[in-house]
Amino acid sequence: MANAQATDKHPGELADVPGWFPPLDQVLFTWFLDRQEQQGTGGDLLELGAYMGKSAILLGHHLRGGEKLTVCDLFESDAPDGPNQAETTKSYASLTRQAFERNYLSFHDTLPTVIQAPSSVIAKEVGPGTCRFVHIDASHLYEHVYGDIGAAREILLPEGVVVLDDFRSEHTPGVSVAAWEAVLNRGLRPICLSTQKLYGTWGDPEPVQEELLTMLRQHTDCGLSVQWAAGHRLVRTRSKGMQPPPFPRSRHYVPPASAPQTPPASRPRTARPARPRSHARRLAVDLLPPVVTRAIRRARTSRA
Ligand SMILES: C[S@@+](CC[C@H](N)C(=O)[O-])C[C@H]1O[C@@H](n2cnc3c(N)ncnc32)[C@H](O)[C@@H]1O
Q1: Rounded to whole angstroms, how far apart are CA atoms 162 and 156?
Q2: Is residue 30 in a domain?
Q3: Would 246 be classed as within a structural domain?
Q4: By alpha-carbon position, which residue is closest to atom 11 of ligand 1?
């Protein structure tokens, strides 16, 4: 995973926050969360692996009265084992909790509940059956993701949605194994697959899939296909130049300075064309006797 560079600046827009949250997934998160809100499905939100806050900031925007967002990340703390430590040193070296909090507070008045610890603690921190949406994006190693999926199952409401990041990236085979194992052996039902994330539920995926298909078919900026595998309907979508959904700017947004007025291009200085002699002057010269005109011409030539 390429390192998303941290910056010292307050973000003006969500696009300024470093992270790994493609426009298609921003559209899908927004759609799932809006749908839950429209259906009156209340519940808390949880993110395992927040990094600089890109996806957490979007989640925080969807909190309704009485709901809570919890994020869990190691930030600067040591990872629980060597492979996980190698992963965090390689990909998240510039991460600080302070940078996460600065970014989050640029868009929201209050912080979420922040748990600075390995994601394995989460089932002790968040109550069973309390969340409507869980984003799993912490360690990408099999043992950790296996545990995170188990915790999400406990924590989610019956029709809640879980999102597994990097379920098929070349560099994260452990997530792929954990994700498809959950589908085949642990009751997880896929709702849809984006390029980067698997969206699933332990409830009934069919009603939400139908609505999602209707929404996606209206988009000309994403590809869509449906396949069946091992009794699961797999709705696969990918971006074709999709833009992120509209999102409120941060309190630090500064509109770009209007382009300076460019002066009209100045005409290149060229030699002024010789002014034609006026008709009256020409007439006057032509009427002079030849001896006088010759004298005038001689005088002009000697002046030149
Ligand atoms: C891919 S980043 C998260 C990206 C973020 N969700 C976004 O959209 O920009 C993964 C994060 O997980 C954290 N992490 C890695 N291993 C972890 C573990 N065992 N427990 C908790 N967090 C972990 C890292 O510190 C890093 O911030």
Answers
A1: 8
A2: yes
A3: no
A4: 49
What is the pTM assigned to this prediction? 0.85
Question: Please, is 171 exposed, middle or buried when counting C-beta atoms within 10 Å of its C-beta (0-12, 13-18, 19+)?
Answer: exposed
173: pLDDT strictly greater than 90:
yes
Per-residue pLDDT, averaged over 209-235, amounts to: 97
- Residue 6 resides in a domain: no
Q: What is the mean pLDDT of residues 166-191?
A: 97
The mean per-residue pLDDT over the stretch 130-147 comes to: 98
Rounded to the nearest angstrom, the distance between the alpha carbon of 47 and the centre of ligand 1 is: 9
156 close to ligand 1 (CB < 6 Angstrom): no
In a domain, 280, yes or no: no
What's the 81 CA to ligand 1 centre distance in angstroms? 15
Residue 268 confidence (pLDDT): 45
Boundaries of domain holding 27? 19-239
Residue 162 binned pLDDT confidence (cut-offs 50, 70, 90): very high
Token duo for residue 179: 């994700």
Please name the residues in contact with 51: beta carbons below 8 A apart, sequence gap of 6 or more.
Answer: 4, 18, 19, 20, 73, 92, 95, 100, 137
**How many domains are contained in the chain?**
1
